[in-house]
Amino acid sequence: MAKGNKANHRRFGNVRKLPSGRFQASYLGPDGRRRNAPETYERKGDAERALTLIEAQLISGEWTDPERGKIKLKDYAETWITQRPGLRPRTVDLYTWTLKKHITPYLGGVTLGKLSTAMIRQWRAELLAKGVSISLAAKAYRLLRAVLMTATDEDRILTRNPCRIRGADVEHAEERPVLSVAQVLELADRIGRRPVGNIRAIKDGYRIRFQRHGEMRTYPEVFATRAEAERALWQLPDTDTKQDGRFRAFILLATFASLRWGEITALTRADIDLRRATVAIRQAYTERSTGAMVLGPPKSQAGTRVVGIPRAILPALREHLATYVKADQDALAFPGAKGGPMRRSGFNRASGWSEAVRVLGVPNLHFHDLRHTGNMFAAESGAGLKDLMARMGHDNVRAAIIYQHKVKGADKAITDAIDRHIISSDDEDDDGSGAVVVPIA
Predict the structure, then answer these.
(1) What is the value of pTM for the model shown?
(2) Is 252 exposed, middle or buried (0-12, 13-18, 19+ CB in 10 A)?
(3) DSSP sequence for 181-236
(4) Which of 16, 33, 420, 422 is most buried, taking the most CB atoms under 10 A from its CB?
(5) Which residue has the higher pLDDT, 171 or 408?
């Protein structure tokens, strides 16, 4: 450690009086460079106490270079994201969006050394006050905490992580709809059904032409926007319809095999084994914010799995493969309109998803809710947690490694139970009103 000024009899560091009358503390860092304390002091004793604290930090190894703490959070966080090569492309997009949308506008210009728990508490309060959901605020908080944890533990820029707000990282479970089997079957039969007609742009807005009983007609009302005209066309009564049959098996398999969007859109003909009634999940598509479609491994190691298919839906799959899928074994099982991977936006538009779920009575249904519904059916089979985790491709890698090879018999039992559920529901007179809302983690 540096020896103190003999006149001041200090063992560590120096204190000098500035022309302003305030006192400045300085010391030699581990690299031999002299540094000033981050602030000046009104009293000499305060400056000496600051030096005592700095000396203790040097001895304990907790000292951080104040110069390095001058980097702005925005710059550090952006670099942090780029230095994590193991992140999935969609995770990179999510982190980048969260940083730009919810963190940088508030804290991006603050240097790391100036960040405090009080400042972060205020930032979170402002997010919530502006209508950001608790769950989204929790995601932003966890990202910020991870960034600052690296600044604390690895880069030693901070002595402690200022993200210390109890409960700020907790998301509130959102209630999502779960369909009955009858509703799943109805959705599969209705999906892809579109009214026969068109929308024309005219001088005053948009006009609808539609077909009823084989005759084209013009709707008398003119709509201000194309979106309004589109909604009206879908809701006209007794309009002739046509149906794109590509999506029926898509809905059935996504639900009853509990598949994620990226998993089912990456399936090839070779992945679907009709004889064994199984589907192999080996890869998944991710759509980047740039629009690029990236093919990679499933979401986690546990996501690579073989799942049983209820035999009640095999005829729909067999018809789909024969009608819509190329003969090559590596041909996509559920391609988009142009033969490439199916995009969510293209699916929503071509399938008439919004209108289909509105008629079904669950207008807020998301595609991922089909997987959630399938998971609930599997749970109702009485299977244990470990068996369910393997079927669902749960993110717990350790559980997947230990139990994946044991689950074949259990998965067949789950599949058979779902199969019986489908058959029994199909035989009943069900008005489709059995959907329930349950929380998901």
Answers:
(1) 0.66
(2) buried
(3) HHHHHHHHHHTTEEESEEEEEETTEEEEEEEETTEEEEEEEEESSHHHHHHHHHH-
(4) 422
(5) 171
